[in-house]
Amino acid sequence: MKTKLTSVISSLIFFLFLFSVSIADTLIMNDGSILKGTVIQQEKNTLKFKTNYAGMLNIKWKQVKSLKTDKPVKIMLVTDELMTANKVNNLSNDISQIKKEDKQDYTEFQTHNISYINPDPWRLGKGYKFSGRVNASLKSQHGNTTKNEFDIDGELTLRSLKDRYSFVGQLEHDRTDKKTSSDNWILHNEYHYFTSKTRYLGALVYFERDRFTDLNLRTLVGPIIGKQHYESTDLNLATSVGIVKAYEDNIVSKNTDYMGTVWSINYDHFLFDKWTQFYHRHTGLWDWEKTEKVTLDSWTGFRFPLSSGLIASVEIEWEYDSVPKETIHKSDTTYRFKLGYHW
Fold this sequence. Notes:
mainly beta; Porin; 2 domains; 21 strands; 67% strand
């Protein structure tokens, strides 16, 4: 009886295995190898394919000869045309065939015209994509000099098909020999309304404080225009320029307000098969009344994804003021090693 029960269980497990394989999506690679799993998403030139035996795989689309799915997938072209299909053949690096749902014939497309397979809901006009990052940097030194440093920064983005909200913040607080030696923070907020796939109109609200440069609070408010040159998991580049009204509340110096021009660059790019990400963020402000006065802030570094959303970063922050207050240097450079989390 026990032997018979064991045989039944073994047979059941075997048939369940065959059933799970039969409903899996199938990839045939250019080298003839076959992968079984589930198509998660293809963005630009990278296919995310989940398997039971190797986890999530990131596969270059040019390495795929054909893709057959158990259930139809959504395919979005660069023209934003959306179709459902369950089979895609790569005839070459330039031409792909797509078998639409309930159709017998294949339709041919240039491969670079296929933007996404199973695009994120926000690209279909459904809700917002919520993404963000938070980092912290701590340092404690004891001996001839007692020094404690605490830096934290983060960013939050809400993206829909038509608009985007972005919030970037940074806090730095350092103490040397029990005295505060650095106390500053920045809160950079922008709203973008996309008038086309790449161009947007928006508004900027910016706050900055740096007690050791005599700045109690700088406030910038005004309209901006910008362009999203690239937007994907692998590569992002956005540039913008705008006109702002600036208010500066100083600790010792006379308070001022003036009109000015602001500009920004926000760039990141994954390298070495997503082993590391290079990034550069830059903002600038030009005072229309004191035309010789320009202030710049930039953050440049490398991020190294670890696991489960954890990241390590090395960064250089550079600050510049062409007309600083007395006893203040024109430029200041900070080096950081940070640990963080992104989602």
